[in-house]
Structure formats: structure tokens, C-alpha cells
Amino acid sequence: MSVKINAGYAWIDGYGYHLTDGLILDLETASGNMNRSDSIVIRLDLTNRWIKGFCKTGNYHSGNPTPPAPEISRTIHEIVLARIYVTAGTTEITQDMIEDTRMDKELCGWVCGAVEQIDFEQIYAQFQTYQQNKVDEIRKWIDQFQTEKEEEIKTWFDNLREQLTEDPAINLQEQIGKIAELTTENKDNLVTAINEVRTSIPIPIKHLLATEEGSPLDATMGKELKDLHDANADEITKLNGNLKNYIKVKTFSWRYEWEGLGFTYKEITGIKMDGYTPIGVVGYSTGDSAILSAQFGIFGETLGYWFRNITTSTITATASVSVMFIKNL
């Protein structure tokens, strides 16, 4: 297994490093049953008077491994370009295993202005892979939730039918007498309890694909979820109506000032919702038509965004993004 550091520049404590042709680093073979996290670093060694790239192999762990910390001393200074999450049995490194840490000023940080333009292609590819994995996880969770709820409802009705088999009148009277033991909100009689179960099963698509303000989403992920719903409408209507409590979308807005042509990277913080974890941006507005395109990445509670300005004038506007959250279990 290996990874490649593409050609580029690095600055460490005033010393410059120019990688002209790229550098391929071999990684240690993965364990068959343990995980680990490696660090890709650029090391300044003042004693030996050189700067080189290395892969620092992390310790093995059965759960979530901790990557090696950069070494910083009087003669050694390392910056971390990326972290590689090597799961048990891995034979090939893919984009979703790579965490780009160049934007983390505690581990690396970017030197802006010393190069003509920063290439975001690799970062964008990693984000796209991460986003697709999250969509796949949501689809898998929906399938599992559907199967569990179908089985619960089927078991409940089968039990009721068996209890009414021998003497329907006597057994029905016994079930009505135990109405207080039901977990439904309606406990007045058996009919209202059954109606509550029935009316709670459908999941209206407006609850799944609406922002907190109630406006529908028209972004790619929103369309994918809608297509997924339409393709499985009969099965999804059998689910309990609580799915809307697990997936929410929240809109964040902020004022910004943009100047100059081309892509520029900026960040905003506070992307959070109590009890939920952000998984991706599902819609956005830049607030000004001069911003031709935009890209987004979520790192914890921080939103990184790249706007492409097609004018040389300064733009002041209000941008907004719709972020999808999934409930913490």
C-alpha cells in the first residue's frame, strides 16, 4: 500500500522545501484484525540539515486508533499533511481513508500568497467520497429501520390474532381490559389505539426534505433522498412516522465580503445542532450572481467554503447554506 505527496512547497521555521516530482510513500501492511492511523509528515531536521517527507506508522487498536503526533523540538519540526485511517484487512488506500490536515493550523496550515493558486481537486474528491459514503449509510439505516418496524407490527397483529382464535368475545374483552398497558398516547379504547398506530406509519416526504423554515430543498442530496423515497414508497409507508426526528436540515446565513478573481477559501464556525451531527451541505445561496460557483466542506462544527468570483470588484452579500444533520444515537 502507498500514498503520494504531489509536487509543491512547504515552509517550516523559515526554511523552504520544494518537492518537484511528487513523492510516493509506502505504508506498513495492514493488520488482519486491528486498526491504525498513520501520519504523513514533512520533517525539518536542523542537525542533519535536511527537509524530507515521511509516513509515521501509528499504534494498532481494536477500536478507534490515535494517529502519531508531530515531533517538535529544538532540532526537529514536523508538520502533518494528512492522516491515513488504515482499517483491519485493508489492501488499498482510497480517498475516504485520507484526512487532509493542511487546513488545520495546529498541525500544518497553509502559506497563502507564496504560490499562484491552490489546487483543491484532491480535497474536493475526498469530500465527494465522504458525502457518498454518508448517503449510503443513510440508505442502509432506512432499510434496517423499515425491516425492524415491519417485523414489530407483524408480530403485534399475529399475537392479537392468536389471542382471539379460541373465543373471540372473551379474548377481545380481556384485551380491552388491558388497554392501559398499551404504549400509545390514545388509551380510551382499542379502536383509537389501533388508529394511532396506523396514522403514525406514513412518512410524508415534506418532513424528510424540508428545512426548519419549511422550504423544500432543491439540492443534489435532497433530490437523491426524494428519488429514494419515490422508488420505495410502498415500503416506506409501512414505517413508523418517527424517521423525521432522525434527519433534520438547518439553514445558516452570514455576511461576507469577497474580492478578486478565482477561488478563495474561508471558514465560518458554529455549524451545530444539539443532539445531531452534521453530515453535508444539501443546498446553498451565495447571495450574488457574480459568485459563479461554490464548494463546501464540513469539518466538525466548521464550514469551509470556496467561492469563485468572476469580477474584479468587491462583493458584499449574505450567503446561506442548508446543512443536513443526523441524530446522535
- Rg: 27 Å
Mean pLDDT metric? 77
Strands, count: 14
Give helix and strand order, one letter per element, not per position: EEEEEEEEHHHHHHEEEEEE
Give the biggest sheet: 4 strands, antiparallel
- Give the overall silhouette: extended
Helix content: 25-40%
> Spatial order of the strands in the main sheet?
6-5-7-8
The share of residues in extended strands comes to 25-35%
Low-pLDDT segments, ≥5 res: 201-220
Count of DSSP H/I helices: 6
Structural class, please?
alpha+beta
Measured between the Cα atoms of the first and last residue, the distance is 34 Å
How would you explain this protein's 3D organization?
The chain is an alpha+beta fold and 329 residues long. It has 6 helices and 14 strands. Strands 6-5-7-8 form a 4-stranded antiparallel beta sheet, with no helix packed on it. A 3-stranded antiparallel beta sheet has the order 9-14-11. It is extended, with a radius of gyration of 27 Å.
